[in-house]
Amino acid sequence: MAKEEYIDSMIAEAVSKYGTVDILINNAGIIDDFSLMSFSRMSSLS
What we know:
By secondary structure, the protein is an all-alpha fold. The chain has one domain (1-22, 34-46). The chain is built from two helices and no strands. It is extended.
């Protein structure tokens, strides 16, 4: 999930197949608020 358009496509497909998202649990770790550009830069470094 490194590209924003992939994320948008995945969400659109899930909503099309299952309906609206009622709850989302992100269990990837602790992250403070930051921009998508900052996240992309950070993930490309690791």
